[in-house]
Amino acid sequence: MEERFKSYLEAKFKQIAPTKAAMEYRKSLLIKLMDRAQELHIKGMSDEELIYGTVITELGDFDAELRDYENRTLKRDVNIKIATLCATLGAMYLIVIVAIYLIVGFVTRVWHPTWLIIAVGILIALTAISIAACVALGRRKKFVAMRASIVGAEIPIGVTVFLFLQLAGGVKGSFMTFLALTAVIFIIDTVAAFASGSRFRWIELPICIETVLVMLYVILGLGLSYNGINIWHPAWLLCLGGIVAALVQIIGVVVIRAREKKRENSDDCTVIDEEYWTKW
């Protein structure tokens, strides 16, 4: 019986690549088949041919199972190779930016703010990883995670801009970069919500508008106050404008939905009337 099972498995496994994993899988299947044959013996089945046929039949569509196994194995191997390549490239990238930092530092004897080379290099890497994750998640239609990845890509960019303005350029009020970043995050996330067909997009839109206008109000107020210009009043009308825009949008959405509902009900009545007069 064991030799028959071996011959069967050897013939079937010739359909897939002769890898070590496939060999281990073949051995485990042989043990499984032998155990099942022994179980049938114990239950009183004595015909060897019947036992063999029963055990083989229980395998189902074994050819399809083997193809599926090979596809899973190949996919896993590819993922391992990609992960290894990414880790190698990441390590090389880190070594390069550290080397550039050391070379620039020793040549110029200026260690500050040249350390920004390392910081910005790492932030660029994080941005690239977030963008790659965003593309991959978008292809899989995992839109919530995709939007989170978009935010993850924007934050390092904002931090990079802030570091350059504050430490390299000494720009006064550079902290307002984070205010602008907040507005940008809301804008891009809302665009992504509409692009992905989020159910809450019409709720997110007024929140986005109000947030952007509030950030604009604060940025203008702080920025002009450095030059002795006070526009806190009447610039607060920007915030009020966001609320008004939200109310207008809500009213518009409610009116449009009501019209669509009325049209649907009207269409349903037409169908029902036709069915009523033609159906016996």
Tell me what the structure shows:
83% of the residues lie in helices and 0% in strands. The chain folds into three domains: 1-60, no CATH class; 79-172; 175-280. Helix 2 (20-42) crosses helix 3 (48-57), helix 4 runs antiparallel to helix 5 and helix 6 (143-168) runs antiparallel to helix 7. The termini are far apart. The model has no long low-confidence stretch (mean pLDDT 86). The protein has ten helices and no strands. It has 280 residues and is mostly helical. The protein is flat.
Report the span from N to C terminus.
67 Å
Could you name the ranges where pLDDT drops below 50 across 5 or more consecutive residues? none
How many helical stretches?
Answer: 10
> What's the shape?
flat
Kindly state the percentage of residues in helix: over 70%
Average per-residue pLDDT, rounded, comes to 86
Number of strands: 0
| Estimated radius of gyration | 33 Å
Structural class: mainly alpha
- Largest sheet report: none
- What is the chain-wise order of helices and strands? HHHHHHHHHH
How much strand content do the residues show? under 5%
Number of domains: 3
